[in-house]
Each structure stands twice: as structure tokens, then as C-alpha cells.
């Protein structure tokens, strides 16, 4: 069996990558000097010695001297089960010790000024997951800045454009109103045409470029870019969401309705 195949089979041991690779090499080739192990695993000799030391400490390998030459060999295969049993025991002891600390740690995470949570999302699936998150909006309102033509443009993938219209229908079915400050465009006209059925209120802002969409909901502010690169950012913080919401409200009260 090849070393790479053994490496995959040893994955459940939970060893670091280099330890897993060296152990697989020992099982596949038998006792070897460090230089041979380094060559077989493509790990530098210096690192190989460190890895072998760790494996010996864990009882998964041992030193053997042959013709006055120090070699390293894998422990008997059944030692793997003993290793896992020892690790399981350690984890159970750790769980017993950590359990009582959970209430204390939860209290420490709730100071007077909590730190904002920032999450990055990549790719189409990442962006769609942000939109799905808005469907759980507790305040039943999304305040937004956007250019509808730059939200999954039709020229990229018609199926994504269809997905967005379906998403809007689901949002409306959940009783969540969308209050958008938008550019005037063909897609915006279509969004305005469907405004009643999709619980959408629009104000128009002329002469401003919206390369990405901003959604403000609950205590979150989401930035979604799908015109060119698929990426998103969600900041979960009450003060930031309140500030962005206030900016939206001020502009909303100044701008004309989309007609």
C-alpha cells in the first residue's frame, strides 16, 4: 500500500499532518534511519527528528539500534487503539474540568461593551447564505442601499437572477419589508412593479454608484458584492447597525419616492 493511502487511513488518529505522514511511512517501509524517512516523506531531516520524537513520546514509534545505527520503527498496530483510548480518557477528563467553567466564560463574553462579530463570506453560496439569514430578521424590516442591476446581473447567470426574485417572495411571505434606497434602472423599474406583492418600498437616489448592496437588519449590517467578485461581509454589532440605520433613515426622509 502506498504511503499516501496510509496517510488517509490514519486520519482518524487526529495527528498533525507531518506526524501522520511519518507514521504512515514507518508502517509502509519498516525500520528506517531518519535520512530515509525524510526522503520518503519529503520532510527535512531536522523536522523529521522532531516528529519522530513526538511519535515516540506518544508511544506510536520507537527507536531500534541495528549494527550500531539508530533506526525508527512504528509501534505494533494495536498500539493505535491504546493511543485512542488514552486520548479519549484525556478528553473526558478535560470535559469534566471545562464543564463548570462554561457559565463563567459566558458571563465574561457579555460585558457592557460587547465586541462586534465580523464574518466574511466567499463565493455564490456564501452570498446566498447571507440572504437566507435576512429571512430570519426579527424586526421584520431590512433597510438597504443597492443598485438592482448589480445584484447577480442577468448577464452572469439567469438562474441567480431568478433566485433573487424568489428570495424576495419568501421575504415577503415572512412578513419582512424591504426599504431600499436605489438607483433608477430597468431592474429597479421591475422591482418597483413588484413592490406590493414583495413588500418593497423604494426611494430613488440619482447620480450615486452602488457597486455593492448594503442590508441593515436587526443588529447586523451586511455588505454583499455580486456584480464582479462574489464576496460578503456581515458585522453584527448594535451600535454600528443603529448608526447605519440612522443614516438610512435621514436619507429616506429626504429622498423622493420611486415612481
Notes on the protein architecture:
- This protein is of the alpha+beta class and 259 residues long.
- The protein has two domains: 3-80, Arc Repressor Mutant, subunit A, CATH 1.10.10; 117-254, Endonuclease, Chain A (2-Layer Sandwich), CATH 3.30.870.
- It has helices at residues 3-9, 17-29, 34-41, 45-57, 79-98, 102-108, 123-134, 158-173, 186-193, 238-254, and strands spanning 61-66, 69-74, 117-122, 141-146, 177-182, 200-204, 213-217, 220-225, 231-236.
Summarize, please.
This protein is of the alpha+beta class and 259 residues long. 47% of the residues lie in helices and 20% in strands.
- Report mean pLDDT, rounded to a whole number: 89
- The tally of helices reads 10
Based on secondary structure, the structural category is: alpha+beta
Distance between the termini: 71 Å
Strand percentage: 15-25%
CATH level 3 topology of the largest domain: Endonuclease, Chain A
The CATH class label of the largest domain is Alpha Beta
Biggest sheet: strand arrangement: 3-9-8-7-4-5-6
- The ordered H/E elements are HHHHEEHHEHEHEHEEEEH
Number of strands: 9
- Describe the global form: elongated
Count of individual domains? 2
Q: Give the name of the CATH superfamily of the largest domain.
A: Endonuclease Chain A
Q: Radius of gyration over alpha carbons?
A: 29 Å
Which residues sit in consecutive blocks of at least 5 with pLDDT less than 50?
none
Largest sheet: 7 strands, mixed
Task: Indicate the CATH architecture of the largest domain.
Answer: 2-Layer Sandwich
Helix content: 40-55%
